[in-house]
Amino acid sequence: MQVFFFRRDCCRAAMVFLLSLRFLAVPRALPAQAPDWALPSSPTHVQVPPPASFHRASRNFDTPVGIFDGQSDIGAALVPGSGSYDAATRQYTVRSAGYNIWYQRDEFRFLWKKMTGDVTLAADASFPDANGYGDRKAVLVIRQSLDDDAKEAMIGEHGTGMIHLAWRTDQGAQMKDMTYRFGGALANVHARRIGIEKHGDVIAIYVSLTGEPMHQLGPPVTLHFDGPFYVGIGFCSHQPVTADTAVFSKVALANEAAKPQ
User: Considering the domain boundaries, does residue 46 fall inside one?
Assistant: First the structure.
């Protein structure tokens, strides 16, 4: 009898030990880790383009939101984004992380509509958190596809108030831009309203700084899009693992070339 109990106790002890090892071996979710090239610029670091072969497939959702057909995490930022519409206030709230909308690929939350022909898009853009990263971008975008390296043209309003017309001439190409600064050395002056117009292959951007009628900002660029393409609003926090928010109000989208209002 003593031998029987000894063996039974040993078996129980062994089972408990094996189960404990099993639970210890269960992997735990680790905080998202951003590669060094994706970290934002700082006094001790300079952001650089991603490796030429680096891509992440976008996460796409075909559920309509407001006037848009769907939304995507372009480039699948390490922290998933979100986009919502409040019919009572007619505002879109876009939340996203993402290291940048730049170089040869992008990471941002994008609310989009598939369109062809001429297009005009305008919106009031704002940042609820005044303390977000200065290079964060609220954008109005025309993209050939939902790939992270798609051909595109956009007007971007930065957290500092800087505005640019930026474009990628072809899939995988490096971005080009025309940059405009307001209030001297980026004195945190934000345009009241921004807009983009596609008339044939001519892309122009518009602004209203203080509520005056929208006016074209700088010269247009020529960029051809095959239809259908994607038009919409988006936001990037410019921090690969930290999400932030932009709000778009009075969004006006028309399937025609007309001065944004």
Answer: no
16-41 pLDDT, tens per residue? Answer: 444 444 444 444 545 578 999 999 99
Please count the structural domains in the chain. Answer: 1
Q: Are 152 and 139 in contact (CB under 8 A)?
A: no
CA dist., res. 255 & res. 253, Å (int): 7
pTM attached to this predicted model:
0.87
pLDDT at 155 over 70: yes
Q: Give, as one character, the DSSP assignment of residue 15.
A: H
Q: What is the signed CA dihedral for 196, 72, 113, 70, rounded to 10 degrees?
A: -140
Name the E strands within the chain: 59-61, 70-74, 82-86, 91-98, 101-102, 105-106, 108-115, 119-126, 137-143, 152-158, 163-168, 176-180, 193-199, 202-208, 215-216, 221-222, 229-236, 239-254
25 secondary structure, DSSP code: H
Residue 173 lies in a domain: yes
CATH code of residue 210: 2.60.120.200
Which residues have CB under 8 Å from 74's CB, separation 6+? 58, 106, 107, 108, 109, 110, 146, 148, 234
DSSP calls for 151-200: -EEEEEEETTS-EEEEEESSTTPPPEEEEE--TTTT-----SEEEEEEET
- Tell whether 171 is covered by a domain: yes
In this structure, is residue 37 part of a structural domain? no
